[in-house]
């Protein structure tokens, strides 16, 4: 549980015997509701990445930017300081000292020269200025990454998980979307630091598997269609309850892959949804077909396959991600329900 903080002084108040949610309980509930859970999680990630790509046209550049902001918020947290959303975005500039490109490169698994190039591109776009090892985000740069749309998406996602967990004695009552949104805005840098701590490694894990994030987004659009068809089939199964019982974390990915598809997704649809140029989508589809994790139908549509070495990596990544999602939800619900931060 996060330590309670005096709202006026923004200093941590010592507390004895704090109560903390058990991540394993959250994880168990996610598995018990895996079809609805992964549907909401997949749609959230799709909407979030589409929004990021639409804004930056370059997800590596976006990762570099939010990494720098995340480190700034971590430094604030270490000093027992936080800002509301209005307070943070009212600032005219943010200065981040002692930038280490090698450290950023190692943590993000992006070559040092690529990091340097992305920082220069952000500077050319008048988002930040770099002076030696110091980076300053100007007002334009601060406002540029203001997550208005993401707050809506994340509040909606957390509300659905809150409703999913409310039947458990250890959880208590659920929170509405408006309550969650209000809480996020009031304790913005504290809450968003937790979000970035989950989201940045999440993106890096996918980049490591697929080689680049655009390929992951293209693949994800196909996977979401498979996922939708799996849920639809189980909902229409005469032995619905037994069918759901057979689906768990360990076999969910294989169930998604092996669901029979009447139709797949074409390149134009993926481009329209993701905003990635169609020519780039086609190039990524060819790469994924060559990797044997998707195949092209006679109708020029794409579906998942159970072949290819990449599928083993994706399946392993899927299992790992469940723990990180459960950890994030445990942390934020603990913050909202058990800390001294109140609406």
Structure description:
The strands form 2 sheets. Strands 1-3-2 form a 3-stranded antiparallel β-sheet. The model is unreliable at 11-17 (pLDDT under 50). 29% of the residues are buried. The chain is built from 16 helices and 5 strands. 66% of the residues lie in helices and 6% in strands. The chain is mainly α and 343 residues long. The chain has 2 domains: 40-207, Arc Repressor Mutant, subunit A (Orthogonal Bundle); 211-317, Arc Repressor Mutant, subunit A (Orthogonal Bundle).
Q: Which value, in Å, is the CA radius of gyration?
A: 21 Å
> How many strand segments?
5
Task: Report how far the terminal alpha carbons are from each other.
Answer: 17 Å
Helical content band: 55-70%
CATH superfamily of the largest domain: Winged helix-like DNA-binding domain superfamily/Winged helix DNA-binding domain
Query: Which parts are unreliable, with pLDDT below 50 for 5 consecutive residues or more?
Result: 11-17
Q: Estimate the global geometry from the Cα principal axes.
A: globular
Q: Structural class of the helix and strand makeup?
A: mainly alpha
In the CATH hierarchy, the third-tier topology of the largest domain is known as Arc Repressor Mutant, subunit A
User: What's the CATH class of the largest domain, please?
Assistant: Mainly Alpha
Mind summarizing the main beta sheet? 3 strands, antiparallel
Strand order of the largest sheet: 1-3-2
Whole-number mean pLDDT: 89
Strand proportion, as a percent range, falls in 5-15%
The helix-strand sequence is HHHHEHHEEHHHHHHHHHEEH
